[in-house]
Specification:
With about 140 residues, the protein is mainly alpha-helical. The chain is built from four helices and no strands.
Length: about 140
């Protein structure tokens, strides 16, 4: 008689080629988030300290004072940088939060487009890459 014992299934390994691309994209997304967050913090400090850093725009639907934009950039920049650090450390919470913050970051820079059009377009593109990378990357560790 054989005795049936319940044991855990063998770990599944991800495809080595896919893991390399997934890891590279995730690491790059984490670095981009950290750098973008720090740049956002610096933009925020500049907007708060001097209200004439950016050229004023005429009438615009999403018009805020430049000091308000400074605080928005500062707060979102800190959150993006911390989440980027979490992604680089492999924190479980960072991937989902990173996707959400990248979406918020893209909306922020869409609304800021008239003040800094070139940097806003670059920031939106960074947000798209970060969302794609975090959403499509598979875990690179083996799972039971």
């Amino acid at each position: 008689m054989t005795q049936h014992t319940a044991s855990a299934p063998p770990p599944r390994a991800t495809h080595p080629r896919h893991s390399t691309w997934a890891t590279g994209g995730t690491v790059f997304a984490g670095i981009l988030m950290m750098v973008s967050g720090v740049v956002g913090v610096l933009n925020g400090i500049a907007g708060i300290a001097a209200d004439d850093v950016y050229q004023r725009v005429g009438t615009y639907v999403y018009e805020f004072s430049l000091t308000t934009w400074g605080w928005i950039h500062l707060v979102i920049g800190v959150l993006v940088a911390i989440t980027g650090w979490g992604i680089l450390k492999g924190a479980d919470w960072a991937r989902g939060v990173g996707i959400g913050l990248a979406a918020l970051y893209m909306i922020e820079y869409f609304m800021f487009l008239p003040y800094a059009p070139v940097w806003s377009v670059i920031s939106i593109a960074i947000g798209v890459f970060v969302m794609w990378s975090l959403a499509t990357s598979a875990r690179t560790t083996t799972t039971p």
